[in-house]
Amino acid sequence: MKEMIYETFSPEETKELGRKIGAAAIQGSVYTLVGDLGVGKTVFTQGIAEGLEIEEPICSPTFTIVQVYEEGRMPFYHFDVYRIGDIEEMDEIGYEDYFYGEGVCMIEWANLIEEILPEHRWDITIEKDLEKGFDYRKIIIKEV
Ligand code: ADP
Ligand code: MG
């Protein structure tokens, strides 16, 4: 198990870290993303998308559970499971085709569907620390 800790001091730096991860991602990679509202999850995900050579903007897939981007160097499946009522909704959308598919998955609020998460994945947490400044973020990436 590997854990890496990064510190960023601007949205651009967070996006750049995401871009590097997206550029290095291989088919079947699954990333979970946890962090409070406004911490930078969308900024980070936009970077991942850039690293996958997706040009269209990433929006939060709040009402759809999963948003699929096909234009990059491999498919990108962006999940936001915040509004999920029952785990069966994941079966209904055929989540296994995404989790064990040809593309890269990013799952926001993954703690709500813990029982079906792939065993091998990267858990990413973004935190603020106001003592280190308003734009400071600590980004922890853990291989599970
Ligand atoms: P979330 O998706 O987690 O709710 P967003 O990515 O939409 O959050 O918003 C993050 C906000 O924080 C943006 O307004 C961004 O400009 C700001 N911000 C300030 N510093 C940073 C940083 N180091 N990394 C990411 N975002 C930052
Ligand atoms: Mg967001």
Written account of the structure:
By secondary structure, this protein is an alpha/beta fold. It has one domain (2-143): P-loop containing nucleotide triphosphate hydrolases (Rossmann fold), CATH 3.40.50. It is 24% helix and 27% strand. The chain contains four helices and seven strands, in the order E-H-E-H-E-E-H-H-E-E-E. It has helices at 11-24, 41-51, 88-92, 95-99; strands at residues 3-8, 30-34, 66-69, 76-80, 104-108, 122-128, 137-143. Strands 1-7-6-2-5-4-3 form a seven-stranded mixed sheet. A hairpin with a 6-residue loop joins strand 3 and strand 4. Helix 1 packs across helix 2. The chain is globular, with a radius of gyration of 14 Å. 32% of the residues are buried. The structure holds adenosine-5'-diphosphate (ADP) and magnesium ion. Residues 8-11, 13-14, 35, 37-43, 135, 137 line the site of adenosine-5'-diphosphate.
